[in-house]
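Example (one chain per record):
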Amino acid sequence: MSLFWAVFVFLIFQRLVELRIAKRNEIWMKQQGAIEFGKEHYGLMVAMHIAFFVSLMLEVILFKDTANQYWPVILGLFIITQAFRVWIIKSLQRYWNTKILVIPNAKVIKSGPYRWMKHPNYLVVTVELLLIPLLFNAYLTLCLFFVLNQIILSIRIPQEEAILSQWTEYGTEFEEHARFIPSLSKKE
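Predicted structure:
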């Protein structure tokens, strides 16, 4: 199996596992009284991620691109990114989800990478949308989906932060944290 198909199958399997975890967590959170927000853009986000995989596959197949000449380095960065993703999911535990679900007055989690930044999960997705196409010289996919992801995040992140601030102590707990750049402030 080529490197492309190995990575592609891994990613599809990983996303299916994540969706299963998210659904299980969603059921638990709603049993705890969680409220769902962001339905109006969630479908767009899902469609963008599906289109990313289709675009990646088509670009690699149609242009018969091979792995980037620096593929070992890029693949290493990708593996580190996946370890970071697992750390994020383990840190949030039952609160990790692909949807915006908020349990009113729930304690805000500030463990794992959340000790230093507000949105490590969005950082991981953004880095992936750069590394995966770069790994296979799929530059059209890289440019298009990097821009689309930024558009969606420009809608989702402010909405998520406003909702969390309204329903939890998020605003107070994360006031000194940057969105994506780790904050090493003394106040923990």
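Caption: Residues 3-31 form the longest helix (29 residues).
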